[in-house]
Predict the 3D structure of the following.
Amino acid sequence: MAFIHEALDGGEAVVVAVPSDKTALLRDELAGEAAVTFVDTTTAEPNPGRLVAAWAAWMKERGEGNRPVRGIGETAWRQARNPAHLAELRYHEWLLNRAFARSSTWSMLCPYDDADQDLDALAAMSRCHPLIRRDGKNAPNEDYLAGEDYAFEALAGPRDPSFELSYRHGDLATIRSEVSRSASDAGVPEDRLGQLSVAVTEIATNSIRHGGGQGTLRTWTQDATFLCEFRDAGYISDVMAGRIRPSPEQIGSRGLWLAHQLCDLVEIRSTRDQGTAIRLHMDTAR
């Protein structure tokens, strides 16, 4: 509330994206304050890769005429589906600093209940933020991962891969066919097989075009999730790739964006020396 009142006293707009129980509490306290907008975060669920674009849209809507905007974004950590989802939620919070670093009219508070998190998890999350706010005051965070590369958790190895394929130019039809077969056998709902096929086509095409002309595909099922992994020798230097909505005039750069919109989770690991791995997650029928 102190963060919100500071904004209102300064004539700023406020965008609030918090779990539903917190939304109800804040609405009661604010009594219909017109400068505060509550947004529905379920429009971006379950994939955290959609959240940067969502925040960009929310801020643009409220920041007309260069009006300063403050955001409150409390991640629903308890609703994390699995360790991979939790890791991507944490990465999203780090990316927010990159996404809006050039804006002088934007700031965000990411609340945590430090009684509800283990110390290691809290330390890992705090490293994603340049400032720590306690008792209404901001202080520089000495542990912030400022100019460093993000410290990703290593991808766990595949669990008994049901299919593996080395691919190259001309194998796109085979990739689509084999992924569709594996996904159907794993229990991916019929109405989502088409979505997965589009995402697979985009990622495989990018892999062949930018990853040295060849790569390796693996698919397997784990914890009610179908996973499809592409590995190649390419390197993705842009950490925001796939996170920002492409403009209608933009040529290319839509593959990762579409994958984020169509899949339940997308994991990207890319280094110059080890190449790129992209994992697409799709929920199976429960």
Notes: The CA atoms of residues 186 and 221 lie 6 Å apart.
